[in-house]
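Q: Joint fold for the lines below.
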Amino acid sequence: MPPRNPEPTDPPAAAPAVLPAELYERLRTAARRLMRGEGADHTLQTTALVHEAWLRLTHSDPELRQEPQRVLAAASEAMRRALIDHARTRGRLKRGGGAKRELFDLEDLPALADAEPEQVLALDDAFERLAAEDPEAAEVVRLRFHLGLGVEETAGALGLSPRTVKRRWAFARSWLFRELHGGDRSAGAALD
Amino acid sequence: MDPRIREVFARALDHAPDRRGTFLRRATAGDPALRTEVESLLASHARMGRFLEVAERDEIAEPWPAVPGYRLERLLGEGGNGRVFLAEELGELSRRVAVKVMHSGLGGPRARERFELERRILAGLQHDGIARIFAAGQLDDERPWYAMEWVDGPTLVRFCDGRLLGVSARLALFVRLCCAATHAHQRGVLHGDLKPANVLVCTVDGRPTPKVIDFGISRLRPGAADDLGGSGSRLGTPYYMSPEQHAADAVLDVRSDVYALGVMLGELLLGRFAAGGSGPLAGRFRSLDLDERRRRAALRDTSPSRLARQVRGDLDAILARATHPDPERRYPNVESLAQDCEHHLQSRPVAARAAGPLYVAGRFVRRRPTTVLVLLFVAAIPLLAQALGDLQREADRATRLARGWEAASADVLDFLEDSFRAVEPERAGPSPDVATLLVEATDRAGERFATGSLVGARVHLTLGRSWMAIGDEARAAVCFERSAAALQALGGAAAVPRATVDVELSRAAIALGDDARAVDLLARALPVLRAHRAQAFEAWLAAEVQQAFALGRREGVAASYRALEDTWRQVEELGRTGSLAAQSLLLDLIERAREAGAEQRARALELRFDELRRPGDGGVLHDLQRDYIATRSAFHAGRLAEADRFGTSLLPRVRAQLGSDHRLTFRVYELLGAIARKRQDFEGSVEMFRAAHLIALRIFGSGHPRALQATANLALAEIGNGALDAAGAVLEAAAADVAALPVDSERALRLRFRRVHAALLGARGQHAEALAVLEEELGAAEDRDEILEQHELRRLAVPLLIRNGSFELAENQLRALRSQPVVDGPVTPEAELDLDLWEARLEHARGHSDRALEILAARTARALRELGPASSVSVDALRYQASLLLELGREAEALRVTVTYRREFEQWLAAGERRSADRAVFARLLLTAEPAAARDPAAALTVLREDVESGRATLSARMSWSEALYRTGDVQGALAAVESAARDAPDDPRVLRTLAGLRAQAGVVSPSGDSK
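A: Joint structure:
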């Protein structure tokens, strides 16, 4: 005879006030990357950044956790905002004459390794323009850059082929680079 | 933005840089604006280097190397240590070759050695089945490269699928692949990464020839000259890697390649299967969906049943031996694997077969092994065993009737075997499945036996049980009725068999929804069976279980649980705990105990079950049930990864052996759904619950409470996955059935549907409506099911209440949640900390930061106490607390909590034998603690010194060591430490970047110094 009680099931609708472990790890890795590693001399620590991002997320929309896609998008957005806020704060500190260049900054973000907060902010402006012009390419940047997903993972999250993701990613990077470093729109210098 | 920009840009990147101009002119003819735009983007692309690049390698981003003497045309692929290009050889021959160039930047000396070894290995191999090397050299930046034969053809699997090759043709190609592998082995070379992508097929003299490429991770066999370590670091492709290759430092030999070849053979013959499964591949094939089986069979130009038949037997045995987890029991080398395949092609006996289990089974069915007979035979073992056991015991009574039953056994078997023969022999058309067979057997039995035939009664009973086993109670009932009618004609002498049949009939009646009839039948059978419980043990037990469940329906779980306990006691008294039926009872008892809230007792009984079961004596069903319990226990204990692994390997076996319409299959699906959800795999959870729901509709019927529970689970899973419309549709379809549920006995189930409804509303953003539903339902609970439901309702309500600003109500619910601990599912410290964080959020939302901090402080203290200072949960708790303090501008306090934590950690480290990993955590804390004033690199040096000097330190501890040196001003020391780490972990990007940074800092001029 059938037992009457089903297997225990969690209510997906009950908001986990702590991060789901996997998402937490993901956010933390992304945070580490953005904050350039555990060793950095930060005013805002990696873990705190993650919690910050998460609180931001759940505060704004406690029902998010029901939609993994949206969670991913929202998480990358939250990470981005936390990063920007951090750059702003750091910028203020710098003008106050506090911060020094940090060696262990060199982790993971080679081109941004010696980025000034202003550059971080400029990148973000460029990103917003990209998002307005080509939301699909921006979506890839969110997941690849802000959230630190790999090509395969990004492809899985967006339902695209890895090849498409790679193409969009190359496109977005080129586009952003041009925005930041002055578009050489006149001629194909690299083309023979 | 013009979508063509992205498109043209992407296609331009597929061309060699010097050809992009041409391409672009052609692609943008007549649209100068488009061309200018793409050109400027390509210019950025060429200049941007690794701008924004994430740790992962990305071939599109890397510039193409200039290889002297060749013109690169197209990127063919990317391996672990280099990129492979299609190139044209400049000069007179101008043939096309594949050029492989080592990756820039990463790797260091070890990667370079590997690459060079690969060149030397290829140079030493001369075989039609192995791509040849033509030339080699070094680039200006010292990166090595080589040019080899370009194999212009598809991969082995694609080749076979594209031409719809049948089993024999595939096998013949496989044998030729084995020859190539043997050639390499004889020259002391292991491939190490054999997989379909590394075997291409080209046509040589009109004959398809497989060629092995990419010896990128191959190695010389231990003992061969120039051995590069010989022990396998974890390279390779997991699906094709042997178990010993997964192990960290095993010494590998040719048997690893045998394993990979075996996996490939399986893929060639039947397609890919989920990793980690077990059992004969033909059986796993049979457990696939029919559509999938058809698809795979069509690629082999045959039908699913014929394909399974071709593989079953010899080939399954060959596969099992080639991929045996224990290398000792594998083929000792590739030649013997190839030989067995050839023997099979020539219809000669194969070596692998002698010890295979199917061999035995095949003999048993008198050398007429057919797909169906074996399947049915396996499924019927418990039934036959029981039937024969019954007969034996009835013989003990020495009545004439019993002798008649005994004599019937041979006739029963004859009849069944005849039935199978009647449908099987080389008839045209698809091979019948179990149900078809049973239909045929049932029809024949109806015609063959007159009423009053003892053999007929027996056969009908067996057939009825078979129908029950595959979940068709209506047909089962027909058979039981016939059996009862046959016995009826025999009068009072057949009282016990008659009662046995009645119990079965009553089971079927319940499943069919005719409760009144079930009760009548049971009331008649039970006294007879109780009087003969020692003789008709199994039948008696089945009756008692039926009775207990009937009681449960009338009076609730507790009554039914008590009845089962009582029956179990009698079984112990009779000393029959070892029998199969008794163990089934025990399984039911365990479930009921759990439902009645007697968790302790349930666990104790599980232990008892383990103890009673002797391996191999239970038959198929019991093995499966036992594994189910193991999976469930792992789930309840919170060992989710383990539970997932168990469950995933259990599912195909259950499906293959019990069919998909079986209660156990149903339960396994539900359990896997619950596991998936806990693991945040919402999609997987939907898939599992959807399957469970379908089965429930089939075996219980829609409207049955059990089926409705499955409906609710499915709806929750859909909500979890964000498919709100799908969830809505599921709920709507069940609405009428829910409304028709009995008001009193199904309160918890109705409550569950209300909860799902609220969850759906909440997910749709209708928070007020959701809250209204919840507030209506929150209240007192009576039995355990309701307590659980209330618990879930509260968890749902808390965030909605906080959002709504109803802080007091939220607080009440939180309090209720705390007073009623989670009784189901894994209880982990993290789950408890959930509640703390909620509470902190609540306080924060109210503006009571102090209170929030207090809670966090308590949480830190508790994590420290229960998990110890080295646990990541504890460290995180501390960090969160400190950062919140900093945010509130209370730096002194932040410093104090961190310093206190540090002191605790120090005392803990001093208090006993600790692992070096624990010291590494501590050092990390000293280097990164909040606020900065709490950091102490000098102390970190002291903590790490001994581990580093003795070589015990982990990589991250060594990086911490270097960082601490740097922070204390010793840049050269830091550099030396990272350099030493880089020697041991030449591929770790973190190490390499730090190395580059430190070198720049220390003034060492060597931008690409790691490759010397």
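Q: Anything notable?
A: Chain B touches chain A through 120 residues (CB under 8 Å). Residues 70-149 of chain B form a domain with the Phosphorylase Kinase; domain 1 fold (CATH 3.30.200.20).
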